[in-house]
Write a structure and sequence with these properties.
Blueprint (H helix, E strand, L loop, with lengths): L1 H10 L9 H14 L1 H36 L20 H51 L2 H6 L2 H43 L1 H7 L3 H38 L1 H6 L3 H53 L5 H43 L21 E11 L2 E11 L4 E6 L5 H8 L7 E6 L2 E2 L5 H6 L1 E4 L10 H5 L8 H10 L3 H6 L17 H14 L4 E5 L7 H14 L4 E5 L3 H4 L4 E6 L2 E6 L1 H5 L4 H31 L1
Parallel strand pairs: 3-8, 3-9, 6-7, 7-8
Antiparallel strand pairs: 1-2, 1-4, 4-5, 9-10
Length: 635
């Protein structure tokens, strides 16, 4: 299991690996356009935050200049904006109190706007997250089985959960933050240039190096994030397989080995994350060091300008220092933005692989009306390949007249289940025609076709819901009486009546609280409830004891009147009731006929019948010997 999981990780390649980063970025930006109203509100609120921050700093700087002018008569008084002037009768203490009150009011307004911005951001990100997951889930429902054949369930789960969340982060962690950072830097830069142009240029001399560092960082961490996503898939695969196969793990006493395997997967993710974090930890001090160089320039050059009265101490140097600090913080966001961009790009690539995956099985634009089918089924020279060049069905031809029963038998891997999948149009044949009522199924509406078929799979899958809901899954509007009739027909009514809540009893995950035979009978009831003209049974009685099988066979024999039944099975008791039996080997039909005809011919069917009859005779002999011994002991 461990070896397979590791090999899957190394061999798996993204379907859209050739998609450029620019194409992914354009698609991610499309999310911003889709939610442009909320994004505009978020940016507007951030602009208010910048304005409030600048106002608070400006007022504080004016206060410092006013206090300095009062302490040092040689210092010039502050220049108030918009030509304002203080009342002549105000005392210095009143002026300081008014300035302090103004700073407090601005701070409270700033906090309120920040709260509103955080609230709007949280609401938008959750809307995007819910919509993206819904879009991915809806796409998964429409994708054909080819997609599921080529992708591990752990990868699909990871994409619909973690990767979608990483894509969501592009809106608030990249798009809005980039706009906010650009706006903030522009406003601060204008203010700083207005204070003193040479000082501004000197303090920002190292800024180009910040952008160069960001580009280098982006290129280094991009492949690391892809590898982290793949390792996440492997971890989920290990967890899912061990939870689903816990009976096997415990039955073979492999708990320590499985714990070690999970620990290894966990450590691989930890090591990969540490590699990413090491790069981030290296990049951030580099960015911080460059910004501190700017602060040294400010103290030296700016202090010189203050001493020479070229700029004021408060509205000049103090505000400039705070803006430079805020400027450095905003530039420091480049690290977080770059980091989020890389995570979002990798996640977007994986999510868009799902969204862009072709829906191979679709209804035609102008489907042939079907209504309720008569039930005739025909395959003409059908061949099929899961993987190009490797045929699993070859030149299959047969016809099942309406109301007849056709049985398919053969060794495991002969293609029995695949053939039934073609009838349901889970796949389209590579060559040949599958027809219902003489109409190629590709010319029919997919939903209309499947409404005319009821299928019982080899592995009975039940949902975590009530018994009634599982039976009525394909017909949610069915009445209680219809559900009970279906259960009766499938020989499920007896054990359902014995359950504490009967039809309202909750079926555990995958039907864990039911036996294999009980799960199979509920699946039969689910199929029979639809009253389909065509019934497909994929080894439906494999998990049922002989007595229950006899009950089901008798019930289905009555229910099959006027219904076409195609059953895949290796049980002679099931096969002998068919009007026609097809024997498959290596994807081909190697023999066909009735039970009586095939048992007279040498081959697989005769061997199967002899083997099962011999087992029955041995069982009967053992029972007879047991009875004889019991009577002898009693005598």
């Amino acid at each position: 299991m461990a070896a397979r999981a590791e090999s899957d990780s190394t061999s798996r390649q993204p379907a859209s690996a050739n998609a450029s980063r620019s194409q992914l970025l354009r698609r991610l930006l499309g999310l911003g356009v889709r939610y442009r109203s909320a994004c505009t509100v978020m940016v507007a609120l951030q602009a208010l935050v910048v304005a409030m921050t600048l106002s608070g700093l400006g007022l504080t700087g004016k206060g410092i200049d006013f206090i300095r002018s009062e302490v040092d008569a040689s210092s010039p008084p502050p220049r108030w904006p918009f030509g304002w002037s203080l009342p002549a009768d105000w005392t210095p203490l009143q002026t300081v109190a008014v300035i302090a009150a103004a700073v407090l009011i601005v701070a409270l307004l700033n906090a309120s706007v920040r709260f509103a911005a955080a609230y709007v951001t949280a609401g938008l990100t959750q809307r995007i997250l819910v919509q993206l997951r819904s879009d991915v889930y809806a796409r998964l429902q429409r994708l054909s089985f080819h997609f599921y054949d080529g992708n591990a369930s752990s990868s699909i789960i990871n994409r619909a959960a973690a990767d979608v969340n990483a894509v969501r982060m592009f809106i608030d962690g990249v798009l809005v933050k980039v706009l906010t950072t650009a706006l903030t830097l522009a406003v601060y830069l204008v203010y700083m240039l207005n204070v003193h142009v040479p000082l501004t240029l000197a303090c920002l001399l190292t800024s180009p190096l910040l952008w160069v560092g960001a580009v280098m960082f982006s290129r280094r961490v991009h492949p690391e994030y892809r590898r982290a996503s793949e390792l996440g898939d492997d971890l989920i695969l290990t967890l899912v397989e061990n939870v689903q196969g816990i009976h096997v793990v415990k039955g073979f006493g492999r708990e320590p080995e499985q714990i070690e395997q999970f620990t290894r997967s966990n450590r691989r993710i930890r090591d990969q994350k540490e590699t990413i974090f090491w790069r981030i930890s290296t990049f951030q001090p580099f960015m911080g060091g460059l910004t501190q160089v700017n602060m040294l320039v400010l103290i030296g050059y700016g202090g010189y300008l203050v001493i020479n009265n070229e700029i004021s101490l408060g509205a000049g140097l103090f505000v400039f220092a705070n803006l430079l600090h805020e400027f450095a913080n905003q530039v420091g966001q480049i690290t977080n933005i770059t980091n989020t961009i890389q995570a979002s790009l990798i996640a977007a690539e994986r999510v868009f692989e799902v969204v862009d995956a072709p829906v191979e099985i679709t209804s035609p634009d102008d489907p042939v009306p079907l209504g309720r089918a008569r039930g005739s089924v025909r395959l003409d020279d059908v061949s099929f390949e899961y993987v190009p060049g490797r045929r699993v069905l070859e030149n299959i031809s047969f016809e099942a007249p309406a109301g007849s029963t056709v049985a398919i038998t053969g060794e495991p891997g002969a293609g029995k289940s695949t053939l039934l999948s073609l009838l349901m149009r889970f796949y389209d044949p590579t060559t040949g025609v599958v027809a219902v009522d003489g109409i190629d199924v590709r010319r029919l509406d997919v939903d209309a076709l499947r409404r005319n078929m009821g299928i019982v799979f080899q592995d009975s899958f039940l949902f975590s819901n009530t018994v009634a809901a599982n039976i009525a899954f394909g017909h949610p509007d069915a009445s209680d009486q219809q559900i009970e009739n279906a259960a009766q027909l499938a020989a499920a009514a007896e054990f359902i009546e014995e359950m504490p809540d009967r039809y309202e009893a909750i079926v555990g995950e995958h039907g864990a609280n039911l036996s294999g035979g009980q799960r199979q009978r509920l699946s039969l009831a689910r199929a029979v409830l639809l009253d389909p003209p065509i019934l497909l049974l994929d080894d439906a009685t494999a998990s049922i004891d002989p007595e229950t099988e006899h009950e089901i066979q008798a019930a289905l024999a009555a229910a099959s009147s006027g219904r076409t039944t195609i059953v895949a099975s290796n049980r002679i008791s099931t096969l002998r009731r068919a009007d026609q039996i097809l024997v498959m080997q290596g994807g081909r039909i190697v023999a066909r006929g009735s039970h009586d005809e095939l048992v007279r011919q040498p081959g697989y069917y005769r061997q199967l019948a002899e083997l099962q009859f011999a087992d029955q005779l041995d069982d009967a002999a053992e029972d007879a010997e047991s009875d004889r011994q019991r009577f002898a002991n009693a005598g």
